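Thought: the user asked what Protein rufy3 looks like in 3D. I have the sequence; next I should run the structure tool and report back without guessing.
Action: structure_tool
Action Input:
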Amino acid sequence: EFYEPNALMMEEEGAVIAGLLVGLNVIDANLCMKGEDLDSQVGVIDFSMYLKDGGHSSKSAEGDGQITAILDQKNYVEELNRHLSASVNNLQAKVDALEKSNTKLTEELAVANNRIITLQEDVERVKEESSYQLESRKASSTDGQVLGETRKQLKEETQLRLDVERELEVQIGMKQEMELSMKMLEKDICEKQDALVELRQQLEDLRAINQQISHKSQSADASSKQKSEAIARLEEKINQMSGTIKQLENRCKQAERERDLALEANRLFKQDFGDKIESLQVEVEQLYRQRYGLEQELRRERELKREQHLSAASRASASTKIKPSESPPKLLSESAPTQRESGQSQGEQEEKTSLSSS
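Observation:
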């Protein structure tokens, strides 16, 4: 819908052109503006804008993109180097051909010089002959025909000499042009050699950058492996922690259930035994009151017994010891109620402890 019916992309070759454009990486639009020579490659190309190291330790995706870009630049530089080497070889072949043609021209120039020298000798000889013929013509008139023939020969020889001089001038001009072209070719060759040196330096820089990138990629791979191992260990720990968390959640649920059951049981226990506890508390208070009364009675009885004992002892010391056998039974009879009272107090303490424990 974006093309006319007679467009190139609407034909069968359009798919082929699109497939070729997919693999296109670099278009060289650098033109050599020296005079009218637009077909030759540029001598020096500044790759400093493309070869800057922008910090490859940031991210792996950016590092891969920069590596691919640098590899494309490296391939482009190698292709340029091949083109330049081919152009240098062509120029070397042209220089060899020009040297051969120059040697041929020098040989032809030497032959032309020899021919000019011989022609000059012939002209001098003809002049001498003409002078001699003029002198002999004065002597005799029969030599007029010979003089005319010599004049014709002289004209022909002068014409030949002029032609040879013209050829010599043409050859000299061609020689000068060849020398100029040789100088230009030598200058171009020097420039090409300088460009080749710079390109080799750039290739060495690219190789160093590639080595650095490879080292960085290896270190990045090692760090990624370590990170993946750490991630695997952390995932295992996370799985273990999730398992323990699930177990703790189950335990918490069980504890909540047990707590609810205990609260319910406590509530039921309170409901069941609330009245009993109140009645027991009332009984305990009554028992405390009884115990207090009994303790006071016991104190009074002990005081009375002490007084009786003291009075009996004083009477026994004052008497003449008429009846000594009657005192021990009294002591036994006195000690018996004390034992009974101590047993009653122990029973009360046991009741108190049982009530407090309940």
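Thought: the tool returned a structure. Summarizing for the user.
Final Answer: Structure for Protein rufy3 predicted. The helical segments are 13-22, 60-139, 144-318, 327-357. Confidence is low (pLDDT under 50) at residues 322-339.
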